[in-house]
Design a protein that fits this description.
339 residues; alpha/beta; Rossmann fold; seven-stranded parallel beta sheet; three-stranded mixed beta sheet; binds nicotinamide-adenine-dinucleotide; binds UDP-4-deoxy-4-formamido-beta-L-arabinopyranose; UDP-glucose 4-epimerase activity; NAD; NAD(P)-bd_dom_sf; EC 5.1.3.2
């Protein structure tokens, strides 16, 4: 029988791409999502891409009875926990909502897993836990210091998971710290579908390219970087998705936990991203330089060595593929899943 994975938040951006990778690797997938930031349409798209449909449970990950139901109905071998809220600015304005959702869902899920005797978990953390890390590349051993409630919610979950693994060695937990996921499945059927005005670079950029927004603001041109714009570790979402399969395999194989960066290990500037996008898609993207965005750091990219050494995983897709795939998704789905 195939291994079966519960994917909370699996209708969302990273979760849906991970569901593709898992199903194509022959695993059975059960998605639990309350659809607060996603659409059930993604299930049709997953079926088109994978020629089979994941099980879907529309429920909140803070709903203990719903989780117990899933564990009772399905023999689950491991869980990937994507469900959560992720907008930094929103978290500053609504901290309690972020703590309730991100901490509440994690505690409730862990308790349900404990009751079901399922103790293999992959957790979505973020490079945001490194705060204003003074030097890149950032290794996993860098000091942790968060600068906003979203980041704090991730760090608090990480701490909780470390405490749990310490208390009971039967728990095998992979904490994955993502850098900046961008791009989409190469079919153009699955991608990022933000609600309202996108806060992140790539979704904003593709909407300008598609004519839905007038102009991209480049936040900061006076950073101490080669071209003055911010530098990030943009990683193709399909590579990121593969990292989750590698983490599950690691937990199976090693029977121990791990904390690992998922990034390319390469810094790319906002200007480089914009130039590459325009070149490979042939689309002009109106833009102008604006002030730095408060809270942004100049440079942030991963030391990706541990992932290669322990998971045998590394990012393979370059900047051009990130741009091509993001644009294909946008061009085919101008309104995302809302269209
Ligand atoms: P997303 O919003 O597209 O996906 C999250 C999914 O979780 C959505 O489908 C949403 O409906 C669901 N959800 C939220 N709260 C829920 C709850 N209480 N119960 C059930 N479902 C719930 O976001 P994403 O970009 O796919 O991010 C996935 C995870 O990765 C999040 O935990 C996020 O914090 C983390 N992460 C994202 C990024 C990024 O840049 N996208 C970077 C680092 C970490
Ligand atoms: C990237 C660069 C901006 C928009 C965020 C979260 C982080 C993680 C990933 C969840 C920066 C510049 C952006 C725009 C721009 N998420 N930019 N114009 O801030 O690195 O990371 O997403 O865990 O926690 O903070 O990503 O895409 O917002 O910005 O010039 O319209 O693009 O200033 O230099 P960021 P981003």
């Amino acid at each position: 029988m195939n291994a079966r994975v519960l994917v909370t938040g699996g209708a969302g951006y990273i979760g849906s791409h991970t569901a593709v990778v898992l199903m194509q690797a022959g695993l059975d997938v059960v998605i639990l999502d309350n659809l607060c930031n996603s659409s059930a349409l993604v299930l049709d798209r997953l079926e088109r891409v994978c020629s089979r449909r994941p099980e879907f449970v529309q429920a909140d990950a803070r709903d203990a009875a719903a989780l117990d139901g899933v564990f009772a109905r399905h023999r689950i071998d491991g869980v990937i926990h994507f469900a959560g809220l992720k907008a930094v600015g929103e978290s500053v304005a609504q901290p309690l909502r972020y703590f309730d959702n991100n901490l509440g869902s994690t505690v409730t899920l862990l308790q349900a897993m404990e009751r079901a005797g399922v103790r293999r978990l992959v957790f979505s953390s973020s490079a945001t836990v490194y705060g204003d890390a003074s030097a890149s590349p950032i290794p996993e051993t860098a000091p942790l210091a968060v600068t906003n409630p979203y980041g704090r919610s991730k760090l608090m979950c990480e701490d909780m998971l470390r405490d749990l693994a310490q208390a009971d060695p039967r728990w095998h937990i992979a904490i994955l710290r993502y850098f900046n996921p961008v791009g989409a499945h190469p079919s153009g059927l699955i991608g990022e579908s933000p609600r309202g005005t996108p806060a992140n670079l790539m979704p904003y950029l593709v909407q300008v390219a598609g004519g839905q927004r007038e102009s991209l603001q480049i936040f900061g041109s006076d950073y101490p970087t080669p071209d003055g714009t911010g530098v990030r570790d943009f990683i193709h979402v399909m590579d990121l998705a593969e990292g989750h399969l590698a983490a599950l395999r690691y937990l199976e194989r090693k029977g121990t936990g791990i904390t690992v960066n998922l990034g390319t290990g390469r810094g790319v500037s906002v200007r480089q991203m914009l130039d590459t996008f325009q070149r490979v898609t042939g689309r002009a993207v109106a833009h102008r330089y604006a002030d730095r965005r408060p809270g942004d750091v100049a440079v942030c990219y991963a030391d990706a060595g541990r992932a290669l050494q322990h998971l045998g995983w590394q990012a393979r897709l370059g900047l051009e593929r990130m741009c091509e795939d993001a644009w294909r998704w946008q061009a085919q789905n101008p309104a995302g899943y809302g269209g």
